[in-house]
Design brief:
With 572 residues, the chain is α+β, with helices and mostly antiparallel strands. The protein has four domains: 171 residues, no CATH class; 78 residues, no CATH class; 85 residues, no CATH class; 96 residues, no CATH class. Helices cover 39% and strands 21% of the residues. It contains 14 helices and 24 strands. A hairpin with a 4-residue loop joins strand 7 and strand 8.
Length: 572
């Protein structure tokens, strides 16, 4: 009989629609409860938004009450061309300070002897010296160069003597080339003026060997052409001096400012050595001056202090020219004065607040000179903080007014907001207004309330505004300390009492918490009632459907019996 569960299959009567309508009529109380829960959820959302706005007001109040706001300083200098870096921290002493820097602090340096690079070859015979192996400032590129209008090919696989022979061959013997290991220079000689290079040369051979056309019958490299390699091992770096005194594995060491620097002549390069020195605790910077072909140690810190450097195992410092042949120039101390006072000596150009005698002021001098440094209160930051407080306060007041509003339209229809009639919320708005606008006791000046600095309510509105811009500006520029006390002084200051109230309202067991928990309890009760009604409705639906199915079955049976009788009577 399962097919009889289809509505009207035997009776032709759509009883399922009737059951749906009967159930919906009985669902009215449940719908009313669902609507009540929906309204409660709207209230919960409203309270959540209000809590956020109160938290924003608390943050704006605390920001205005923070010492950093009223203690923030701006600083200016009378001569920006000096390029001094001047800063004034929170609470720095306001005023104008004349600072005269008569001497800058410098670093102690140890400058090595020049000419530490070796020659490109140990003898005048360069028949085995490949062009690609020559340690030059610029590596020779493959291609051709021109001598007396004749092209001379050159490749890295050629020996230097091969190139010399090609010069002679290309010029028909008019120009010959030679190398002198003593001077580490190449010379091109001719019976007539030698003309070097052309606009179409593809190799830099002539410039790499510092051969520049001087119009004479002989052209010699302008300077020694050999140079050191920063990336090859120390043993193969092309240093002029011989490295000795290391152990059998090539290990050696030297000391700088008491810090030992170890090295290995087979595995370390000059570049890795300089990096090791610079990263060590020696407090120096090691560098290579390619123009003068020398190494330099410079103290990281400035001031009139010494520098000690000595080989401890091996002769590397001596070979680098940083040993006995080096020149040590001690650094100098900075000398300055403040407001025409006595000379103050500093090992650093970064002059501290203690040295300057001005709390919170710091000056880093980059040039000698004199100028006036003016430290002022940052009233712009205070003004911004005051207006942020006003904005956050008005946001809360506006939201409370909107959510508790009851209005009557022109046709007499009453419209009530979500929390209309909520006395706790209305009381909250009044309490906040009282806390914001009430006088602060114990003030030593005429500034004791917001009205004193030009802030008042906007007409009959519950919102604040700056009603007198000049009054606020004058208070910030001329009486900032009292304005600070108004917001962040005693326990009765605006900031203190406002923060305390908001924390009480938004905290556990506060006004908002109590109301939210009450609504949540109501919602739990509503959920239970809705679920109970739903169970009863489902049971009722089952009962009704069973009755109609029984009716369908009876109707079907009657139809079958009638058909049987009609058949029997018809056959008789």
């Amino acid at each position: 009989m399962a097919g009889l569960q289809l509505s009207g299959l035997a009776s032709g009567f759509d009883w399922k629609s009737v059951v749906d309508q009967l159930i919906e009529l009985q669902r009215v109380p449940q719908t009313r409860l669902s609507t009540e829960k929906s309204n409660n959820n709207t209230k919960l959302t409203t309270f959540s938004t209000l809590r956020t706005k109160l938290t924003n007001l608390e943050a704006a109040t605390k920001a205005l009450s923070a010492d950093s706001v009223f203690g923030k300083r701006t600083v200016s200098t009378s001569d920006s061309a000096l390029g001094w870096n001047v800063t004034a921290g929170s609470g720095a002493g306001a005023g104008a300070y004349r600072i005269d820097v008569s001497k800058l602090a410098t670093q102690t340096t140890r400058t090595g002897a020049t000419g530490v690079s070796g020659s490109i070859a140990s003898s005048n015979d360069v028949s085995e010296l490949l062009v690609s192996e020559m340690k030059l400032t610029s590596s020779v590129t493959d291609g051709f160069f021109t001598v007396n209008g004749a092209r001379v090919e050159v490749a890295g696989t050629d020996s230097l003597q091969d190139v010399f022979d090609r010069i002679s061959s290309a010029t028909g013997g008019a120009v010959t080339a030679s190398y002198d290991s003593a001077s580490d220079k190449v010379t091109l000689s001719g019976s007539s003026p030698v003309t070097l290079g052309s606009g179409v040369d593809t190799s830099n051979f002539l410039y790499a060997l510092e051969l520049f056309n001087n119009g004479g019958t002989s052209v010699t490299s302008a300077t020694r052409i050999g140079t050191i390699s920063l990336d090859d091992s120390l043993a193969d770096a092309g240093l002029a001096g011989a490295l000795s005194g290391v152990d059998e594995d090539g290990n050696g060491s030297f000391a700088v400012n008491g810090e030992t620097i170890a090295y290995n002549i087979e595995t370390d390069s000059l570049r890795s050595l300089m990096s090791r020195v610079n990263q060590s605790a020696a407090g120096v910077v090691m560098s290579y001056d390619s123009g003068q072909d020398r190494f330099v140690f410079a103290n990281r810190s400035t001031g009139d202090v010494g520098m000690a450097a000595t080989d401890t195992e091996g002769t590397l410092l001596q070979v680098l020219g940083l040993g006995s042949g080096a020149t040590v120039v001690r650094g100098t101390n900075a000398e300055f004065s403040v407001n025409g006072g006595g000379t103050i000596v500093s090992a650093s150009n970064a002059l501290t607040a203690e040295q300057l005698g001005v709390p919170g002021l710091a000056v880093t001098a980059t040039k000698e000179g004199s100028q006036t440094v003016t430290v002022s209160s940052d009233t712009k930051s205070v003004d911004t903080a005051v207006r942020s407080f006003i904005s956050a306060f008005n946001d809360v007041q506006s939201y409370i007014n909107i959510q508790t509003d009851v209005s009557v339209s022109s046709n007499g229809t009453v419209r009530a907001a979500t929390l209309a009639g909520n006395q706790e919320l209305s009381s909250m708005g009044r309490e906040l207004r009282g806390l914001a606008f009430g006088a602060v006791s114990g003030m030593e000046s005429t500034i004791s309330r917001l009205e004193s600095i030009g802030i008042d309510f906007s007409g009959n509105s519950a919102e604040l505004s700056v009603r007198d811009e000049a009054k606020l500006a004058n208070a910030l520029s001329g009486n900032l300390e009292e304005v600070s006390k108004l917001f962040s002084g005693s326990a009765g200051s605006i900031g203190s009492r406002m923060t305390s109230y908001i924390e009480r309202v938004t905290g556990t067991s506060g006004t908002l918490d109590i109301q939210v928990k009450s609504i949540e309890r109501q919602n739990r009760s509503l959920d239970t009632q809705i679920a109970d009604i739903e169970r009863r409705l489902e049971a009722e639906r089952t009962r009704l459907e069973a009755s109609f199915i029984a009716m369908e079955e009876a109707q079907s049976l009657m139809s079958s019996q009638l058909a049987a009788l009609n058949g029997a009577l018809g056959s008789s």
